[in-house]
């Protein structure tokens, strides 16, 4: 005979309200007023701690948000400078658009897209409040100094493994191994797809706008150049070296132009060298972008050029004609000749790795 024993949790119950002090009665009344009010306002206390970066739109600071009872939270604050605007009205109009885009990005809440937390104003200056990401952007991570640091801190056996699976020396800067590069780019494609579904174009995909967290997760950051396709601004910003040809020629910002920028980043990660460094003339820069697909054999290492699939991905992403690129970020990932298919070939060849964990361990070794 089976016996089932049911254990009931014991809860202490007080009959009637406990006695209150006069002060606590006042506090309880305030509580009731708060939860019944329609509006709630308070002052946010932020302390600037250190400069994270500067750019054409302004500066970004690591800051500390302070709450009650010693609560603190690190946040990133982007201060939008009015310097490049002709007048205050132009600045206000640009910031209105930025506020709308920021609010829509905040609702996306995607693992591979920076979390937007608030858009605030102090003395008419607009400030974008975002999550602070603990990690490295790809521009900082892939430097010769960082690779030397890894070599100095690991065993010979581990160093060989890093060179075979994660990153190795390139012509100018370290280059990522193909599996690792594709793994990171697939996460960024996921973030782009989330933006594009909301009809938002990032407009400035480049290595310094891709962060790798200490968890190994990759995120798109800095939405300062993001554009709502349904409310196109007259003044648009981008980084010419990573901008699609149509962005430079016609100021045409589309989801396909984000894919071209992603393609330039991918080729740079695989080759270990900037593609358009030192080209300051727009005509020469456009020509270099138009001829890039035909020059890939001379830029990329043998382990990349030997893969027809990987070369096809690079060429299709960076096709000068937008209509020859993938139709969407999702297609770039899931198409028969897309990113996911390349990772499947690694799995079939027993060459794949747990790349997110590999990045996490590597970043631990760099600290």
From TrEMBL:
GO cellular component: cytoplasm
Pfam families in UniProt: Pkinase (PF00069)
The EC number(s) this enzyme carries: 2.7.11.1
GO molecular function: ATP binding; protein serine/threonine kinase activity
Presence of the UniProt keyword Kinase in the record: yes
Keyword annotations of the record: Kinase, Transferase
Record-linked SMART domains: S_TKc
CDD domains in UniProt: STKc_PknB_like (cd14014)
Presence of the UniProt keyword Kinase in the record: yes
Superkingdom as given in the UniProt entry: Bacteria
PROSITE patterns, alphabetized: PROTEIN_KINASE_DOM (PS50011), PROTEIN_KINASE_ST (PS00108)
Domain called Protein kinase: residue spans: 46-339
InterPro entries given in the database record: Atg1-like, Kinase-like_dom_sf, Prot_kinase_dom, Ser/Thr_kinase_AS
Descriptive protein name: Serine/threonine-protein kinase PrkC
UniProt organism field: Botrimarina colliarenosi
Name of encoding gene: prkC_2
